[in-house]
Design a protein that fits this description.
Helix 1 crosses helix 22. Strands 10, 13, 14, 15, 16, 18, 19 and 20 form an eight-stranded mixed sheet that branches. Strands 8-4-3-2-1-9 form a six-stranded parallel sheet, sandwiched between helices. The C terminus is likely disordered. It is α/β, with parallel strands linked by helices. The chain is built from 22 helices and 20 strands. The longest helix is centred in the N-terminal third of the chain and has 32 residues.
């Protein structure tokens, strides 16, 4: 019976996947035969900005653009606004920020794209029912790129400032008998401080204070300039936030108190009653209209999320920068004769040193082969996220980018004391003196501790040596920039870790110069690898064993079902059924 059930479930799973693929192929055929209504000759684009912006559209689920075409990436938005700024039919943009949740550098990127759109003679009407929450000041910073800002009369303008906070478990772990043994290179590396301390150690606090002050100063200055207010007035208003819509209007932070339908009517009135067209529909239709044009390509390859080894699973939803997937993208760009330069777009806190080095090696090989490499840093390019930038011809960062963190950390939790309190003992048989080095039921031995320190010293030396070579910095300059310190993009440029402040526009200009592209030649920023929304993607998943892995997990589930009664009886006899290991969620902002 169990064998029959197993075969039935596996057959059903495979059939389900085949039906999905077949259905999508059919939908794509129907869509290709359908002729949409032409775009109007007089229009205002409409964008409702959603949370969780991806850097590029690469990495989404296969065929996701068929079912969810309304979630453009940050690169998509930059490209759309550039195209629209050259389209005489487009009169302006209605930007709804009610659901937006943008990080500081993302806000700067979009703000600059909006400024370029406005510079072409178009208007931008920003609207929100309310700007609330921890990201309120970043979203408002983006809104100030528009010439007019409207807030619902009952809404709030929550621009309370910038806070960097983290929970500290050092005392709690000590009370529980858990030893946190983490080693850093060096005193400013804060990645493990929450596990070993009860508060920010003095060097880390000093470094973070400099970081938040730099971010705050840049945002407040931009707000003051855009709203024609004095810096002291803006600082005072931030210190009294959250503000009601009436207070925000009377103090010059917004222009109108309107409901959404009223704000849309006001935007259309600016364009003599032009039709409102969703920005994603415009992009799809305008892209079709330009199919005959063949611009020179500049490949955009995203390092988006924690850096890990291997390839990204085809059906993964989490943001991660898988080293081999990025290497494949670099190879695709190198082999495409239409591509004349690569922009590496980094939005990552770092991760595996080996994976970061894999990416750096691929980029270095491409550059040695004559391919210009420009790094454009997004919200964060720290630790391994900075390491991968060392192969670049030029490094570009937003003033609000968080970068640096040139250092390394490793260690473990020793649970032996905690487990011993409850009568839990562990034993092992091993071959090799350091086989149990990272066991969480024993402390590091003297030899293991010395070995770990030697490895960390070697990695840190390699990291700083590469920084010194790539950035042409002397030993004292590297030491002043490194030791785990984090920097805003503004400060990183001052100390030589970054070349230029800006975003995609500046990176594209540097890429054109490095590749020798003539001024009259049209270029396009294209995400690589290009998405394969067809059966090839499914075949790739089969080749990589991902479908097989799903079947294996199904087999494991069936095995558990078979032995569930035995497992339950063992737990009940030991009191295991009464153990609750759940924990409340922890919010970090």
């Amino acid at each position: 019976m169990l064998k029959f059930l197993k075969g039935l479930l596996i057959s059903f799973g495979v059939l389900f996947l085949v039906l999905i693929v077949g259905g999508i192929v059919g939908l794509r055929y129907v869509a290709s035969q359908w002729q949409p209504e032409p775009l109007p000759e007089h229009m205002v684009l409409s964008l409702t900005l959603k949370p969780e912006l991806r850097e590029t559209s690469v990495g989404a689920l296969p065929f996701e653009n068929v079912f969810n075409p309304g979630s453009p990436s940050l690169l998509d938005l930059v490209n759309i606004l550039k195209t629209a700024s050259e389209d005489e039919r487009v009169q302006g943009l209605f930007l709804d920020l009610s659901a937006a949740d943008v990080r500081p550098a993302e806000a700067q990127e979009l703000r600059e794209a909006i400024s370029r759109f406005r510079a072409s003679g178009r208007f931008v009407q920003a609207y929100a029912d309310s700007l609330e929450g921890n990201g309120g000041i970043s979203t408002y910073h983006l809104a100030t790129g528009a010439e007019s800002i409207a807030l619902q009369p009952s809404g709030l303008l929550d621009i309370r400032g910038i806070s960097l906070s983290t929970p500290f478990f050092g005392e709690a772990l000590e009370k529980l008998g858990i030893e946190a043994d983490f080693r850093t290179r060096h005193e400013y590396k804060g990645a493990a401080a929450s596990m070993t301390s009860a508060a920010f150690p003095a060097p880390i606090r000093q470094n973070y204070r400099r970081l938040v002050d730099s971010l705050y100063a840049g945002i407040a200055a931009d707000i003051a300039t855009a709203r024609r207010l004095s810096p002291s007035s803006v600082n005072g208003l931030i210190d009294t936030a959250p503000l009601t819509a009436g207070e925000a209007k009377s103090n010059g932070l917004i222009d109108q108190m309107l409901y959404r339908d009223q704000a849309i009517d006001a935007a259309r009135a600016r364009a003599d009653g032009a039709r409102l067209v969703p920005l994603t529909r415009y992009w799809n239709d305008a892209g079709t209209e330009n199919d005959d044009e063949t611009p020179t390509r500049i490949a955009v390859i995203a390092v988006d999320g924690p850096i890990v080894r291997g390839r990204a699973p085809l059906f993964a939803r989490d943001r991660q920068a898988a080293a081999q997937s990025i290497v494949d993208a670099v190879e695709d760009a190198r082999n495409d004769t239409r591509v004349k330069a690569i922009i590496l777009r980094v939005s990552s806190p770092g991760g595996s040193y080996v994976a970061s080095d894999t990416i750096l090696h691929a980029l270095s090989a491409a550059r040695a082969d004559g391919m210009p490499i420009i790094v454009s840093m997004s919200d964060m390019a720290a630790s391994g996220g900075y390491f991968v930038a060392l192969a670049a011809d030029h490094v570009v960062a937003h003033p609000n980018t968080i970068t640096g963190s040139i250092g390394v950390v490793s260690g473990k939790l020793n649970l032996s004391g905690f487990l011993g309190e409850y009568g839990v003992r562990t034993d092992s048989v091993s071959a090799g003196r350091n086989a149990d080095m990272f066991s969480m039921t024993k402390p590091f031995s003297a030899d293991e501790s010395a070995r770990l320190d030697a490895v960390l010293d070697t990695i840190y030396e390699d990291f700083t040596t590469k920084v010194a070579t790539a950035r042409r910095l002397g030993p004292a300059e590297v030491d002043a920039a490194a030791r785990g310190r984090v920097w805003s993009g503004e400060d990183a440029k001052r100390i030589g870790l970054v070349d230029v402040l800006g975003g995609y526009a500046e990176a594209e200009g540097l890429a054109r110069d490095a590749a020798g592209i003539a001024p009259e030649t049209r270029t396009a920023l294209v995400a690589y690898p290009e998405p394969r929304q067809d059966l090839n993607a499914f075949v790739t998943a089969l080749e990589d064993g991902e479908i097989g892995e799903s079947v294996s997990r199904l087999d494991a589930l069936l095995t558990f079902i078979r032995y569930h009664g035995i497992i339950e009886s063992v737990l009940n006899s030991t009191g295991g059924g009464r153990i609750d290991a759940s924990a409340p969620p922890i919010n970090v902002r």
